[in-house]
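Record format v2
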Amino acid sequence: MKCTVDVRNVKVILNGKVILNDVSLKAEPGEIFTIVGPNGAGKTTLLKALAGIIRITSGSIKVCGYNLESKSVSSLIGYAPASITIDPWCKVIDALIAARYGVSNAFLPTSEDYEEAYRVSELLGITHLLNRYVGSLSGGEGKLVLIASALIRKPRVLLLDEPLAFLDVRNQALIMKLLRILSREGLTIITTSHELHLVSMYSDKVLLLNEGRVVAVGKPNEVLKRDLLETIYNTKLIDVERANQRILIPTAKD
Amino acid sequence: MNRKLFLVLMIVSLPLLILISLGVGALTTVNINTLLKVLLGLNLSRSEKAVIVRRLVRTFAALIVGFGLSYSGLSLQYILRNPLAEPYIIGLASGAALGVLMTYLIGLTHPLYVFTSAIIGALAVFLIVLSLTTVLGFNPLSIIIAGIAVTYSISSVNIFLIIKLLSKVKGAFYWLFGSVAYVLDYQLIYSSIPVIACCLWLFLRSRELTTLVLGDEVAKALGVNVSRIRAEVIACSAISTAAVVALAGPVGFIGLAAPWIARLAVGTDFRKLLPTSILAGSIMCITADVIIRISSPIMEVPLTAITSLMGTPILIYLLMKRLGWSGV
């Protein structure tokens, strides 16, 4: 099943504060859609709303044609938060098996659950961590476990909050390549990112969010423009050309 | 030790311990030989029968205490994401004890009143702990700090109440530190029903509970109603702890140690941990009761004295594990 994520005029108010206002986006199957914006722009809130973690105040979100309230939606989604939320006293293998909830109907873990755990661990190069306690992992290792726990559900829609954070360059490259492979298989992938210099390398579409509103949406080279980003982030950026890729990086100089 | 062997040893040792528990006590004339007579279908004297029935009640009371406290501890550790959480430390047990003592003080000694009052006491004290935790800032450590502070305060009140009751209620002092020596058969039945019923409820919720290791947000994204599961676990733990405390008083360390012994055997999946914790808790409690009867048959020591000794190595193990993580 190929899934479109259709967000229309979404508004989210939390504790009396408007976090998202009139946000619309459409992510198609086979597309990597990345949400960027300054800290506090509402990127994580938007992703949580898409995952059904936060209730939207108004507007609509449809995943594969279903409303988010529909019970069948959660089995289509794989979600990984930005920071490591897994119980530190839990073993990696048990965390991965726990993430099969809703896609595996057996009461006890099955051999298929374990096979899936090994499959995603191999994809992410973390098979050696399976019997470790999560509390003993480094930030980057924990991040890979989180992404594995989203992938083990064989989702149609993958929601990854800052998938490149905590990772070294080798693992950043691994995740970017993996996202490209998964998108070619027809997954709809929505991520958030602060790595503006990497976004254009793996994303098909970029949405720039500021103070809860959509500022721009389109192909990376249409959205990631220096003037626009300097205004939104209120900081000076340098335009660098490397291996036919134009990237924007912050500068330490005044 | 191999995990499977450890698990098999636990499974085999429970029925053996039950037999040993039936065969030891102050009255040494009723022993394993008497049990053999029962197994061979030979008639027992009235006094032998009475002793065996008494020990049967006591043994199953110990089993229910271990059963209830172990799964309550495990469930609380899961929902609070704190390896040190257990009914005793977070105030459920002392609150239930306060509830029980109040009924004895008023004179309402029917098991139904005692049990209801224990639940009210447990939940009331837990609400105080939660309120304090909110003030301190909700995190795994603040729950423990607030729980210990409230537990000590309530325990002080309980000691005053028990002194008032010493002359009125037989075995009151032993009850305060946990004892199955004075349990009566109808009390055992009254307490067993809620303990088993709550366990079955949590067993049916095992799959949802397992997802909580991923964190609340991820569990919600998986389609789990996290708030409802938390409320159910707290309610079940309070009811189960109240039933156990009404039966045998507040027994420490089983709720902490049994889930950790189970983790050594089956890992960290709740679905496997629940039955294994119950097994470990029952073994711990019956073993402690047998040790008490063998070591001091005339002047018995309370259960908590032995279970605390058993629990200490578990605490040290946890501490070593934690230090290992931080690279110290």
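The interface with chain B takes residues 48, 51-53, 71, 73-75, 77, 79-81, 85-91, 93-95, 97-99, 101-102, 107-109, 133, 135-136, 149, 153, 159 of chain A (CB under 8 Å).
The mean pLDDT of chain A is 91.
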